[in-house]
Structures are given as structure tokens and as C-alpha cells.
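Hi D.,

Good news: the full-assembly prediction came through. Inputs first.
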Amino acid sequence: MPAMIEIANAEKTFTMHLQGGVRLPVVRGVNFEVHPGECVVLSGPSGAGKSSILKMIFGNYRCDGGRIGVRHRGSVIDLANAEPREVLSVRRETIGYVSQFLRAVPRVPTIDVVAEPLTATGTPRETARERAGQLLHRLNIPDRLWMLPPSTFSGGEQQRVNIARGFISDHPVLLLDEPTASLDAANRKVVVNLIDEKKRAGVAIVAIVHDDEIRTQIADRIVDVTSFAAAA
Amino acid sequence: MAETQNDAPLLVAESLSKNFGRVVACRDISFTLYAGEVLAIVGESGSGKSTLLQMLSGQMTPSAGHVSYRMRDGVLRDLNSLGEAERRFLFRTDWGYVHQDPAQGLRMAVSAGANVGERLMAVGWNHYGQIRQAASSWLDRVEIDTARIDDAPRTYSGGMRQRLQIARNLVTEPRLVFMDEPTGGLDVSVQARLLDLMRNLVSELGLAAIVVTHDLAVARLLSHRVMVMKGGQVIETGLTDQVLDDPHEPYTQLLVSSILPP
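Then the structure:
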């Protein structure tokens, strides 16, 4: 089966112009593949570049070199060299992303924050809200909070809203940046189950998780990010 | 976000430049805008962003370069080749223009209903009841109490005026809306409401928009793509979250690092 994600020689360096042009090499020679139904966990200490790699795959950080191939609409698109509108199309249909922190629009109710990836691809609002409600329910966000904007929620609640938003679509690729970091045991278990369902549905997953127990439960393969360290 | 699959460009800017005497306001700016795409033009005062918007919307003739627009019949035409009547027709139907100061985009002494209805009459609507009905439904859509339909906008607050201006622009279902600092001059709580409203309308209607703003938060909330201008030139461009989260140019890094944390 062909890979969903193929990363070849990708690299990233930050140049800090406001700090006298200091160059901060982050990663170099990033090479790995992710197949449908497989969960690859990135490992390595803080600052090794795990989140940066996820952001490069999502098209949020630009690559300075290499290739990030993602299968999209039946062919492979190189996100390291894609036009903005191509990246948007990939995000709409192919790649879902659960970031570490929820970035929500003020005033938008939680249920709509979660439903948005579906309405954006044309699902009727009512159907989208229904699915959003089911996910929020599974993630133990009580109904009385659904019509409130998530900005006033606790850290753990916001993270669960973010997870619901990331899991609601049937995207074939899912990127997870510490999805269980501030969750209690019961909710961690819910997330592990959600990940299992995605894997069974053939979704290719790249995840960052610090919790060893969770990692052993979800990982099919571990990619050590320290091997991509860009020696300064 | 709205559909951006349409492969024919809606608006094409080619090597646009504008000089005022020896002062260069815009230099060699090119880009392509597609249907349903929202482009933010950011930069400080004097960077040339308002001059650029004027050229793009056919209100100012470039010193060099061209702006082309795909008309409803699918033909891409140079704005300069359009007659005055054709250009006016574009402005009345296919385009909207939201001014920073609502007083410039509204007729302050006539009723809110007439402000919205006027655009419909300009495209041939003549049934009073239907016009009033459409105006009232648009007031509702922009969260203005329909009981205020007969009041003139000079009796409205700043935020209401701006929402009325948006209703007036969108009632003819334009395909492209130009916005010049649409949230400038409004207090923060009013801004958030307006932004949320604009964001929903843009995505529901599949509008393309070009938004000039000095506020990066506005760019982040509203736009798919961003162009950063400095000294009349586009110095950095790309997907909005890419440019704001991973800025490459010194000036863009300065802009991004100058945002106060919420």
C-alpha cells in the first residue's frame, strides 16, 4: 500500500532577524513515511523539533529544503512547495491537526467551533452539530457548555474541544500534538479509543505524546527526532 | 473556509506601480486572487496598501501595470479597457467596497432601509415590498434590530454603522469585496463582533475579499493569504498562518513580535 505521507530530506532553520540574524537550525534530513492505518509517534526531548515537524507537515511552517509528499485527491502533492490555495485544499480535505492550544474565534459557541471543519466542506449545519455533540459528549464536555465560547473553559476542557474539532472530520491524515497532555485518566482513555477508531478506519496518524503509557498504547512505530538534529 | 477550488482567477494584478511625482507609492506588485479567497494586505501607514487597494478597485489608474477582472460572463478584462458605465456597473453589482469610515460608504441622512435598498434598485429591483423585505432580512443578518429600519444611520452607533455598510455592500451578492481597515476606529468588543460576522458572511457567501488592515489579528481571523507591504513593495507573502507563525523577513518578524499578548 502506498504511503499517505512521505517526508524526504526535509529541513528547517529559523533566522531571527531581530536578534542580529541568529540562525537556529531545528531539523535536517527528516526522512520517514506513514502508511494508512498506522500511528507514528515522534519521540525526543523538548526542543528536539517534534512540533516543528508536525507544523511542517501541516504547512504551518515553511520548509527550507526537502520534500513533504502527502496523498491528496488521488495524487501526491509536495507541501514543501505547494501554493497557499493547495495547502488550504489539503487542510480542508486531507489533513486534520490537533494543536497544543486551541485558537478559537471570540464569540463562536463551542459546538460550532467543533462543527466547523464539517460545515466548511459542505455538511449541513444541523448534521455537523449533531456529530459535534456526539464527540463532545464522548469527551465529557457537558451540554450546558456547548453554546458558550470555549475561551472561558479550563485548560483540559479547551484541549478536549480541540480534540473534538480535530477528530470530527474523516480526513485520511491526522496530526496530534500532545493530545492528552492535560487530561485526566478517564479522558485519556477516551482519546486512546478515538485514535484506535481512526486507525481502524485507515487514517495515517503522526503524534507527539510524552506519556509512556499512552505511547505504548497507540504507537505502531516510533521515529526518534534526535536523529534529525541539525547540528549547530 | 469557503470553496477555493475554482481554477480561473477572479482578479489578476500584474506589475502594478504608482508614483506620485518622485514618490513611489507602490512598486511592481503582482498577484492572483481566486473566487472565495480572502487576501489581507498588511503594513504600517504609508506602506502603500491603501494606494494598492485604490488601484485594484479601479479608482486610481496605475502608473504602470494592469489589473484584470473576470466578469460574470467568464471573460478576464483589463479594468482600464472598461468604459465608465461598465465600471460603475461592476461597482454596483459584482463588487462591494467597505470604507473604514462608514460615513463614506453610507448616505447618512436617509433611512437604513433605503441605504440597503438603493443598491437593489440600482440593479433593477422596483417592487417596494420586496426591496423592504430584502433590506429587513439583511439588517437582521448583520444583527441590527429591524425596528431601526426607518432610522437614518446618523442615529446609529459606530459599530452599527459599520454593520449597515456591510449589509449595503452584500445585498447585491457581489463576488468580490474590498475592505479598507474595516474595524479601524471601533472599540475592541465591537471589533470582535464585526469580525465574527464578516468571517461568517464571507464563508457562507463564498465571497472573495481584499482586506487592507494594519491589525494582524484581523488578518489572522479573516484571511487565507496575506501580503506584507513596506515602502511600497510586497516584502513577504503566503498563507496567513504561515507568514504570521513563521515570518521570514525582518520587518514581518518585527510586526509579529510587536503584537501585545491578549
